[in-house]
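I am still getting used to backbone structure tokens and would like to learn alongside you. To get us started, please write out a protein record for me. Start from the sequence, derive the backbone structure tokens from it, and show both lines together. Once you have written the record down, we can walk along the chain together:
***
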Amino acid sequence: MNTAVTPLTTQDAEALVAAARAAAEAAGVRVSVTVLDAGGHLLAFRRDDRAVLISGETSTRKAYTALQLDAPTADLVDAVRPDGPFHSLPTALDRPLLFIAGGVPVRRDGRLIGAIGVGGGAPAQDHAFATEALAALA
């Protein structure tokens, strides 16, 4: 039986952004946060004042990578090393993939409904902020 899963809403996306930003603020880190829907379309974006400018791009690419590969980007870093199974993937496609921790898929009832990406802190921090945001949505 194929049951419908409620898609990621704008309200969900704004809640994810707020929770990720709150986690980053508590750690004293300025970040950008991107939330994409299941189709890869932008639902919400926020760059903190004084966050490094490139964080806007990295947060979006992390979210896109997590969505397309349905995995946290933190789990994919080793796959793109020179001896990894996906070593050529970052350059093989004309797509904005980024294999740095901070992108996490968003699921509802076990189904992929979007992704969140955080950029601006150290990779482990960005991953923590994204996963804290997911916990707040749940």
Observations:
- Strands lie at 32-37, 42-47, 103-108, 111-119.
